Amino acid sequence: MASSASSPMVIGHTLRRAVFFILIAVTTLLALGLLVTVFHTDGLSPIERVLLVLYAILFSWICVSFWTALMGFWVMLTGRDRWAISRHPGTPPDPAAPPPRTAILMPIYNEDSQRVFAGLRAIHQSLADTGQLDGFDFFILSDTRDPEVWVEEELRWQDMVRTLNGKGRIFYRNRPENTSRKTGNLEDFCTRWGARYRYMIVLDADSIMKGETLVEMVRLMERQPRVALIQTPPVPVNRESLFARILQFAGSIYGRMFTAGLNFWQLDESNYWGHNAIIRIQPFLDHCGLPKLPGREPFGGEILSHDFVEAALLRRAGWEVWLAYDLEGSYEEIPPTLIDYAKRDRRWCQGNLQHLRLALSHGFNGLSRIHFIMGVMSYAASPLWLLFLIATGVEAFIQTQRELVYFFGQNWMPVWPVSFAVEMTTVLLVTLTMLFLPKLLALLLLLKDAKLRESYGGMANASWSVVLESVFSVLTAPVLMLFQTKFVLAILMRRAVGWPPQQRGDHMTSFKEAALAHGGHTAIGLVVGGLSYLYVPAFFWWFTPVLLGLALSIPVSMLSSSIALGQAAREWGLFLTPEETNPPAVLRYLAENLQDDDAVLPALRDRPPNHFVQALTDPYVNALHLSLLPERGPPGKRRRHYLEGLIHQLEEEGPDSLSAAQKRDLIAEPETLLRLHALFWSRPPAGAALP
Amino acid sequence: MDRGKVIAPHPYLPPPVAAPNTDLLFGRLHAYWRALGVSDPAQIAALSEQALRRAAELPDTLGLDPLARTLLAASELLDDWLAQGSELPRTPQRLAAIRAALLGGVTPDWPKTLFAPPGEGDNLRDTLAEATAEPTPEPMPSAMPAQPIDLFSVLAEIRRLWQKTPGA
To answer: What secondary structure letter does DSSP report for B104?
Structure first.
């Protein structure tokens, strides 16, 4: 499909991108020029060449963020971007055409069911408030393997249907096999039910969206028939720990500006972040079937970070992909602790590194390639920074070993060594400015809007929050650098990094957990600090922010996971966000749903300790679970023997002797399920008198 | 439904009884019918008799002991009544869904309605149809073909250049 945007718009789009990339190139060249001046006095040594290359890559990466932020600042300051998707008049939809139907999809995998369904209910309630509920259906697309969670999901789904009168509107299915993970889960929806809907809105397990936002997304799509995907910027909300509240504040106050900037230069060639986005289903079906990449992992096999690739495929086919930076009411929850944050990075890292291969593939648009490279750099930047720091340390050490010569040849006057302190300080200041100026600009934007300023706790509180957030980010940056470097190396060497599953809810980091995760960081900080203090003392002082972050990683990680500190900071007016100061209705609904959790289904209200046993014993739960199993033929001989063995094990040793996978096998087979139900009821409980 | 009867003890199950006596058989059937929500002793006795007769007709392919077979027969008996009462196609999933609707509490005194003389329990069919879960809509299959991605490879690039070269 060819884009048919008017030519002034096309020229405008091109001009914006040209300016953006020229600014990056010029800034990088200027900074590089300063550094070359410093290095070039007595020729470039090999290590200096390495430093220059690394600096060029890393500085240009900083420049991307900096100029994006600056463009965002400009957009927010002037209050408009005339080419934003929300401002396109578009074409009014055909009144004769049937009203669009939209599926709201929530793919889940072993998630906290209570939170998932409380969130979905909140979205449903918010959508009902708009009066537009009829245009939307809800799909809970479960890939859950854990039998406990599986049965609970079924009960919570049925409870939600009953409470909200949602029969025929709120659907649930659990895939027998979770082939291709989330991509396969969505593909399964698209190929089975996609044709029933014009649009799908993809959520994540912790996504929350306002009803008005959902309605507006559909309205925008209806008016823009060339648009295949609109991404909304999800604002982090709802966490209580200090770590998460700092990140929520940063995501809220800086995020607004950054997303405005991203939209400014990306426009109709924007990206997809995997959730909180609306997708036109037909082009998605036609162009977004993902192939398996040839070769072995990490670069071959299934495409893990599917979202970037899907956006690129849609663009390749001529469809537009937009970021609706000014569409509010899109929320997500973030990991509550530094360690959980790192665990999430581990999951995302491999998928993003895989994009390196795609960035060079044929047929993708230029901007799609840049999205791929940006995805790679999100993680590759860490080992590069580490290399840069090591090379700087080595260079500093070499410099200290040089003896200064003041008299050359026939000169009777001493030749004083040229000092490049000014140039070096300039390089450092420029780099720091690029990193910290966007934070200041985001703060300045608050001066423009009194209401917004108040929602961040006023100018003084917001300023203190920015200062403290900056200190915190300086302390945690080296820790994340080491974490990400470890992940990148492990992936490149095809080694598993042992991480327990991520905990999404607020929880404190224990000393043991912190020591296990950060013991190495602390040791590196202390050893490198000691060595540099002894051998390169001048370098040591420059290096203290990095060393301090590493040396203090255990207490920082533990303290920042504190919920009490997070709440105290809120009392002091620190790290406040508009969503905390004045929560929108949808977030209030979520809080109420989580607090009340009043199930209408007795099987759920009783809060049974074991949902697996409940599926075997409770006639209602057994029947409901059976009704939701996909139709399949009787098991083969081998499978039957395997299940027979599990039944005997269950009889003799109890349910705790079975693994989660074995339990799942038992309750995934209709015949076995019926048989176990009969078996249970045929035996009087041990020691119980007959009724 | 008597929810007090559905808590599993630990260790999970006592050993099976090879030759259960009548008291044991009726005792377990009684407990099961009560758990399903049948409280009238006369109805329980009648249903248990029917379950026993049906158990004798069940094929021995499942490898169940006599007691479990009787319980399975009781469960199937309920499905028969439901299929008859709801006049719906008798697929296992559909029947399980109706059973779940029935046991989910939409009709508090369901035995009275289900076992009512013909013509008197007609509203049960509508109530069950209304309460039966609809997990997914009818599928409308579509294709989602895997898209080709022409990955970069140095060898392929050389080959491409070679092919472009005139006379190559």
So the answer is: I
